[in-house]
Amino acid sequence: MSELQQQIISELGVRPTINAAEEITRRVDFLANYLRSTGARGLVLGISGGQDSSLAGRLSQLAVEKLRAEGVDAHFTAMRLPYGVQHDEDDAQLALEFIRPDRSVVLNIRGGVDGVADAFREGTEEPLSDFNKGNIKARVRMIAQYAVGGADGYLVVGTDHAAEAITGFYTKFGDGGADVLPLSGLSKRQGAALLRELDAPARLYEKAPTADLLDEVPGQTDESSLGVRYTEIDDYLEGHEVDADVAAALEARFLLTRHKRALPVTPDDTWWVAG
Ligand SMILES: Nc1ncnc2c1ncn2[C@@H]1O[C@H](COP(=O)(O)OP(=O)(O)OC[C@H]2O[C@@H]([n+]3cccc(C(=O)O)c3)[C@H](O)[C@@H]2O)[C@@H](O)[C@H]1O
Ligand SMILES: Nc1ncnc2c1ncn2[C@@H]1O[C@H](COP(=O)(O)OP(=O)(O)OP(=O)(O)O)[C@@H](O)[C@H]1O
Ligand SMILES: [Mg+2]
């Protein structure tokens, strides 16, 4: 294994092998302990119908139930955040049935996103690309979660994990903007193993991962935008040998997206100096 591969695995906190039941307990305990120590009143998270929010949502619900069993008042709010009508709404409903959240709120982000998009065109007199609009959708979802969570004194849960963090495949201050990251350090297949252990419907972890941010390509798979397969990303993260081309692509993206995994850069920071 190259020195850089070792460094990436260690920086992202990946464990090459896991025990799914132990990982569930460790991550639920983390959420419960953190809530208890901060005095925050609960957790909030957008539920898309994809693997990551299904897992993070269920862990969040289990954490607040654990706290309530100990006499601490804590609750979980699941948010549906469609842009208009979501083409795979049935998957989102399946995820909600699996998570069984204390409360479920629907907030359509269309008005917010279109408002920013219209103002962009008016203010700059330039067209807004579908890609840029996609990042606005992710950021409006972040705003919606902080608004609903903030009203109740809840913390915002993020779904970032090692297989996304390595390529920076999330919107900075969009879905990357959160207070707690219960899936941190997991590869994509490890996340699927946790869902299987939790008896989730197979559809939720067998479905092709999608950011689903583009109007022009609804449901575009992550693998087709990234040009790398999750099995390859997972193999790399779990310390296996992968094709030299794949390793080079992952390492280039890792280095290019370091700014996303750090706090905003200041004059006293030096992590960027070597390149
Ligand atoms: N070196 C640097 N130091 C400090 N800041 C730097 C920087 N380079 C760019 N930036 C800043 O970062 C911005 C670019 O980052 P960002 O706005 O995130 O945009 P970007 O990384 O270009 O796009 C986000 C990517 O994540 C994918 N995504 C988004 C949301 C969810 C999911 C999913 O899987 O569900 C995937 C999306 O499909 C797209 O490929 C720049 O506009 C600039 O403001
Ligand atoms: N339509 C949506 N409704 C509610 N939340 C959403 C929606 N789209 C994205 N999100 C939020 O943004 C996060 C990032 O999306 P991402 O696609 O990485 O995760 P996912 O959809 O849960 O799983 P997968 O990566 O397998 O598709 C989601 O986990 C979810 O919290
Ligand atoms: Mg998704």
Structure, described:
The protein is of the alpha/beta class and 275 residues long. It has one domain: 3-Layer(aba) Sandwich (Rossmann fold), CATH 3.40.50. It contains 12 helices and 4 strands. Strand 2, helix 4 and strand 3 (103-106) form a beta-alpha-beta unit. Helix 3 crosses helix 8. The mean pLDDT is 97. Bound molecules: nicotinic acid adenine dinucleotide, adenosine-5'-triphosphate (ATP) and magnesium ion. Adenosine-5'-triphosphate (ATP) is lined by residues 45-48, 50-53, 80-82, 86, 141, 159, 175, 209-211. Pathway: Cofactor biosynthesis; NAD(+) biosynthesis; NAD(+) from deamido-NAD(+) (ammonia route): step 1/1.
Structure at a glance:
The protein has about 280 residues and is an alpha/beta fold. About 50% of the residues lie in helices and about 5% in strands. It has one domain (about 15-220): 3-Layer(aba) Sandwich (Rossmann fold), CATH 3.40.50.620.
Topology:
Elements lengths: L2 H10 L7 H19 L3 E5 L4 H19 L5 E6 L8 H11 L3 E4 L3 H15 L5 H23 L1 E3 L5 H4 L22 H10 L4 H5 L15 H5 L3 H8 L6 H13 L19
Parallel strand pairs: 1-2, 1-4, 2-3
Helix pairs in contact: 2-3, 2-8, 3-4, 3-8, 5-6
The chain binds nicotinic acid adenine dinucleotide (DND), adenosine-5'-triphosphate (ATP) and magnesium ion.
The site of nicotinic acid adenine dinucleotide has 16 residues, from helix 6 and helix 10.
